[in-house]
Structure formats: structure tokens, C-alpha cells
Amino acid sequence: MTNATPPPMGWYPDPAGSDQERYWDGERWTRNLRNPPEPEPRHVTGHVPETLAPVSRVPSSPRQTTAAPRHGEVAPPRNKWGTTADGVPLAGWWWRALSTVIDFVLMWAVVGITMHEKIASIMASYQAFLDESMRRISAGASPSDVITTQSLSDAGFVYDMTNLVGAVIIAQAIYQFIMLATCAGSVGQLVCGLRVVTTNQGKDHRRLVWWRALVRATAWACVEIGNQVIVLLTPFSYLMPLWQRSRQTIHDAIAGTQVVRPVRQLDAE
User: Fold this and answer.
1) For residue 241, what is the DSSP state?
2) DSSP 3-state assignment of 34?
3) Measuring CA to CA, which residue among 177, 167, 191 is closest to residue 114?
4) Would you say 22 and 11 are in contact if contact means Cβ atoms under 8 Å apart?
5) What is the rounded distance in angstroms from the CA atom of residue 181 to the CA atom of residue 25?
6) Distance between alpha carbon 48 and the CA centroid of its chain, in Å?
7) Is the pLDDT of residue 63 over 80?
8) Basic and acidic residues bias located where (predicted)?
């Protein structure tokens, strides 16, 4: 086989085997493709190896195709895993866990200070029930006969504990609503550099509208109350960001919110 002069620049049948034409720039194949034009007489310039350029045609000027990006063109940005649609990084699970722990400690510290007498009364009732149960078991009674639903109800501390937990949930929901509506985040979230935003609007620096903050806080409270019946509901909600693309908990999904951790200026430098 003899060497042949490469054909001029132009559109030729795609050597990759597709039904389209590929543009030859005189030295190599480009990524530009187009649908073949209407059949027209073709002028063969000479024998050219098929691996270099199949049948040569009258060259035509390249035109932009919508089938694929042009050579060297950057494809439009897409929503990446771990960011909002406008490119703001979503908060990592460990940052969210840390902020939750901070809020939990803060809330129960306030409860311990303001309701210490009630908590002391509950603990005293529980200790009395425990001592009485151990005394009866030591005397030969069966544990299943000692610790029953009726005995727990008579002890009183279960009812008081339920009321206390319910009050704490309601108080924390109100706290979350106020903080979200005024600061777009709880104290724990602000300490960790987190912010609650509307879904896929990470660059919106405005506070959450009051009704969205209310929906989120109410949904959180419903999950916590439901956890008293479905014990794994709260852990499931808090673990959801580990596998969900938008990293939303149940209350995030209901309220249409996401938690972001914007890159600070010092981090960017």
C-alpha cells in the first residue's frame, strides 16, 4: 500500500461507524459530528487509506452541531453530589451531628436549671419504684409479676417523665422556629458554620420565611413525638443525609430545606 496525501479539511463519513459525518481538520479527526446532507455528486481526489479518511468529498465549512459539545467546549455545570443546585456545599453529616449535640446539651441545660425540682421529683419516684421492686424480687417474687404496666402507672414517674419529654419537644420546636426565622439556623448550627436554606437556593442569604421555618420546626416535633411510638424514627431521620443525594432529614424534606456549610473567605484563600 502506498502513502497518499491526506484529504483537505471537510466533512467525511464517520470512521467510527456511526450514521453521521465527522469533521476532518486536515491532520486528524475532530469531535464535531453532523447529520449527512442530501445526496450529491461526490468528487474522489484519489486513493486514501480507509483508516485515515474514507471516501473523500467536496469539503464544506464546519457548522455547530447540537448533538455534542464542540471540541474544547466545556459542558454546562451539573448539580454535583454534596452541593446545592447553585453550587453551595451541603453540610457534612458529622457537622450536622455536632450541631445537634450542641443544641441538645443547651436545651437540657436550660431544662435542668428551670425545672430542676420536677426532675428531682421524677428521679425520687423512680428510685422508690426501683427499691420496692428489688425488695419484692429478693423476697421471691417473679420480676414479670413485679414490673407490670399497672405498677409502672401507679409509680407515677412514667407519666411525669412523658409530660416532661413532651414539654421539652414543644419548647425545642419553638426555639427552632424562632432561630430559623431570625438567623436561618439554631445556635448549634451557627456555631458550626451551618445555615438552613430553601432547597437548591444555597446562595440566598435571606432568612427562611416564617411559614417554612414553622413547617420545619413542626415536622421535627412530629418526628420526635412519633419516635415515642416508633422507636427508630428519629435515628432514621438523622441518618438519612448519609445516603440521600440532597442530604435531607425527614423534616428537611417536608419543609423543602437543606443545610449548607458555605466556604468561608479564609477557607477559600
Assistant:
1) G
2) strand
3) 167
4) yes
5) 60
6) 56
7) no
8) 19-30
